[in-house]
Amino acid sequence: MPVAQLTILGVGLLGGSVGLAAKARGVALRVRGVGRDERNLARAVSSGAIDSFSTDVTEAVADADIVVICTPVDRIADDVLAVAKAAPPHCLITDVGSTKGNILAALAGKLSATGPTFVPAHPLAGSEKRGSANASADLFRDRLVITTPTADTDGEATAAVEYFWRQLGARVLRMTPEDHDHALAFTSHLPHAVASALAAVTPTGWLNLTAGGFRDSTRIAAGDPDLWAAIFEANGPAVLGAVDRFLLRIQDFRRIVAAGDHAGLIHWLAEGKRVRDALGS
Amino acid sequence: MPVAQLTILGVGLLGGSVGLAAKARGVALRVRGVGRDERNLARAVSSGAIDSFSTDVTEAVADADIVVICTPVDRIADDVLAVAKAAPPHCLITDVGSTKGNILAALAGKLSATGPTFVPAHPLAGSEKRGSANASADLFRDRLVITTPTADTDGEATAAVEYFWRQLGARVLRMTPEDHDHALAFTSHLPHAVASALAAVTPTGWLNLTAGGFRDSTRIAAGDPDLWAAIFEANGPAVLGAVDRFLLRIQDFRRIVAAGDHAGLIHWLAEGKRVRDALGS
């Protein structure tokens, strides 16, 4: 049974993909988009990601059954509060934020138990590309969506939001917000910082001397600085922990190479290969 | 005009691709492979990468017009000497080594001016995959091959070897061995160490929490530890210089995040994005 109205706040790569997937899979009868940039919203209507749009949150969620917040992580908590105030009590709210602890901390004690329920989520899908023009109905297919309900989150609402993400093609894994932020610091946030550093230390005059290895290992450095700054700030302590662990590992490498420790170098490289091989190609 | 005989030492991913490309493009009438593992060599005959093989270098290069050495960087200099002793005087010798200074240093004063000429080369092509089974006739197409002749290298031989690589589909750029090793420390060797470190610090239990970013940025960590240990050892000082530059950059990041310096973080990320955007997707 499709819901009557899905509203998407922030119609970029992720928001546009939520709309395309929801329509392609018959998850919602009507999809409304909310944003600031009317030209972007009009393009999203043309591409079929949304059916209609508004620049006014209150108006756009008044009849919503489910709202997906796809704004940057430093704006999600405020957007949840704005939606919760204007949406009907049965409405479900979820998000796509790459960090969870900061959002839940900002919301603590501020949501009414009788109003709309917020079930935090993070789809492990995305791209260094931005905008609804790069959106895809298949962005979530076979990808993992992590939900991070707390002890206060209504169980039925959590199940319903998880079902919604599965309808978009995703697999769902439930974690605590703390575990999510700790793990993602290593599996997503640290790689972004490292890719950016690798790119930044390379003189542009040498870019013609790169091959596939450099291209792959720096690809995510093209991501949007504003979005990523917000992520690093929202998950500061866990990111710093991952950075420290990584720095020790690189300093090990430095020591081993400087010492000419052949067996140590093979061993060091084999440890990284073992983990990467476990991931598969 | 094809050469009569091309001999390839080391018939793996690169050596097999030299053979396939040479045959597909009519560069050589006969392609011989040399190696230690007869089963691997027999497979390379079946796949068409070579026409025949030998486990004896002396025998395999006796009639060679051009020899391509595709062995690990710590064996190339010895292989050049072995080939130069057994090949006819007009024979050209080139290689695919990822480092150049160590090879030229090991050869200094050891090659006869009247014997075969060695023209060092490094095709910026490869893969974390190994073996002639992954070889491709198109591996070098539109890829860069860097040649590093010295003041002692015969000019005609250099031009002939560069023509050979162009016949395999590559573009050729001539550099000094020192410039090559300095630049490749940043564009290839550092990224490998960094990818390995990123993979190694990630608990395997969190690999299901990775997405495309982690996958791309760690892909090369699956490379062969023996081959890469030899590369890091051969280019130690330049690699350590690149590592130090990179460490400073990551330490900058750490300081900026710890200080909550929003503008500094945006700026730090924008510098990496600028370089990566200059490379293109």
Structure commentary:
The structure is a homodimer of 281-residue chains. Chain A has helices at 13-24, 38-46, 57-61, 76-86, 101-107, 155-167, 177-200, 212-218, 225-234, 236-259, 262-279, and strands at 3-9, 28-34, 52-54, 66-69, 92-95, 117-119, 121-123, 144-147, 171-174. The first copy, chain A, has a 6-stranded parallel beta sheet, with helices on both faces. Chain A has 11 helices and 9 strands. Chain A starts with a strand and ends with a helix. With 281 residues, chain A is of the alpha/beta class. Chain A is globular, with a radius of gyration of 21 Å. Chain A has 2 domains: 3-175, NAD(P)-binding Rossmann-like Domain (Rossmann fold, 3-Layer(aba) Sandwich); 179-279, 6-phosphogluconate dehydrogenase C-terminal fold, CATH 1.10.3660.10. In chain A, α4 (76-86) packs across α5, α7 packs across α10 and α10 (236-259) runs antiparallel to α11 (262-279). The model of chain A has no long low-confidence stretch (mean pLDDT 96). At the A-B interface, α7, α8, α9, α10 and α11 of A face α7, α8, α9, α10 and α11 of B.
Helix and strand arrangement:
2 copies of one chain form a homodimer.
Chain A: E1 3-9, H1 13-24, E2 28-34, H2 38-46, E3 52-54, H3 57-61, E4 66-69, H4 76-86, E5 92-95, H5 101-107, E6 117-119, E7 121-123, E8 144-147, H6 155-167, E9 171-174, H7 177-200, H8 212-218, H9 225-234, H10 236-259, H11 262-279
Parallel strand pairs in A: 1-2, 1-4, 2-3, 4-5, 5-6, 8-9
Antiparallel strand pairs in A: 7-8
Helix pairs in contact in A: 4-5, 7-10, 10-11
